[in-house]
Amino acid sequence: MTTTEEIIKPLSDPEAAGHFKKAGEIADQVMSKLVQQCKPGQKISLLCSRSDNLILKKLNALDLDEEITKGISFPTSISFTEMAGYYSPMPGKDIKMIEKGDLLKIDLGVQINGYSAVVNQSIVVGNSETNPVTGDHAKLLSTGKKIMSEIIANIRPGVTNTAITKIITDIEKESGVQMVKDVYSHSMEKDIDEGVRLISMTGTKESKVEKITFEENEVYTLDVLVTTGNGKLHVSDHRPTIFKREKKRVHQLGTKAGRQVLFFVKRNHLDFAFHTKAFKSIDKAWFGCKECSKVGLFIPYTTQVGSKNEPIVGFKATIMVLAEETVKVTGIYEPPMFLDLTEKEVEKKDEKKDEKKDEKNEKKKENEKKKPNNNKGRGKGRGRGRGKGKAKGKGKGRGRGRGKNKKKKKKKK
């Protein structure tokens, strides 16, 4: 479990709130522009580059003292329907163009003077008043938004993280969706976007964290991921392009490329995530990042996916816990969303599916009774072994399971 002997309150610095708010304002402005550009035929690599360039342009236009750092705290990623996040391909390496009906999760982050504001919004391409979202996508979008709004409404000084987890799991049970496993919400500090004070988003034994009580002047990133699948993720075949330096790790690198990449990251990206497209030589960047990751100097943000054909919806917001109220720093801008199913209608639809399934099973049983039994001694059924898989991660503070999955081999019958 994580220890939290000293609670660091970034808002104790009188200038911190202003930096958080300004970073959040830019993040939401860029998100608004990006949502409008997510249209059929567009390339994700191009949209991500435009978004990052717009962040830098807006930051450079600010009238700040020279010693105040500013930049991208998380490179823009736009992930397709079954992806949990972190898909930001190199130019020319897109797996496909955006299509109408795609469910996209858009992540990005901005930092001013080390105070980071991150945001994630989910949209369905082509969604409009005349073309509303239906079915599972509508159910996930409405549930994800509900969970996020309830968390923000209930995080107050004196409230515990376990109380927030219960609110999440109660909504999860009512809605019939699954929270994605191994996802945590984090406290935030100056130069640190993943602090040690955590909120478990699933409430399972495996995701248990130290009980904490929220206090005023704290900042948190809330990360909500819901799916119609089983909630488990596995690493995809897509090469990671987003990395972050593990500053506590020290290692003497053996290659010149590795040392050059590490030096560049230390000088230009502080303790925040970066994209391999930031380097002049892409081949050298990839080789250096690979070497640094191998020895634990860099943490790769791998693109993880859920169950096949099962969509994932994500929302992320940065909040400030103040004495009078809890304030949204990002997520204030919300993309237009048109859903044609209320939660009750979705439930009725699911009930009808279950009824049809039961009727089908009953008819099957009746037909089996009528058939003569010529298979005596064969047993009642073959059964299907599910098997349990273990996942190795790099700690609970990493969010969406950036570690490697270790699968057990199935025994041959």
Overview of the structural elements:
The structure is a single chain. With 413 residues, the chain is an alpha+beta fold. The chain has a domain at 10-158 and 215-225 and 312-344: Alpha-Beta Complex (Creatine Amidinohydrolase), CATH 3.90.230. 31% of the residues lie in helices and 20% in strands. The protein contains seven helices and 17 strands. It has helices spanning 16-37, 44-60, 135-154, 161-175, 256-268, 282-294, 343-370, and strands at residues 70-79, 83-85, 103-112, 115-124, 178-179, 184-188, 198-200, 218-227, 234-235, 242-245, 274-275, 298-300, 304-305, 312-321, 326-328, 390-391, 405-406. The strands form five sheets. Strands 5, 6, 7, 8, 14 and 15 form a six-stranded antiparallel sheet that branches. A three-stranded antiparallel sheet has the order 1-3-4, with helices on one face. Strand 14 (312-321) and strand 15 form a beta hairpin. Helix 3 packs antiparallel against helix 4 and helix 5 (256-268) packs across helix 6 (282-294). The longest helix is centred in the last third of the chain and has 28 residues, at 343-370. The protein is globular.
CATH class of the domain at 10-158 and 215-225 and 312-344: Alpha Beta
Output the CATH topology of the domain at 10-158 and 215-225 and 312-344.
Answer: Creatine Amidinohydrolase
CA gyration radius, whole angstroms: 23 Å
- Proportion in β-strands: 15-25%
Domain Peptidase M24: 20-224
Biased composition (Basic and acidic residues): 346-371
Organism: Anaeramoeba flamelloides
Biased composition (Basic residues): 377-413
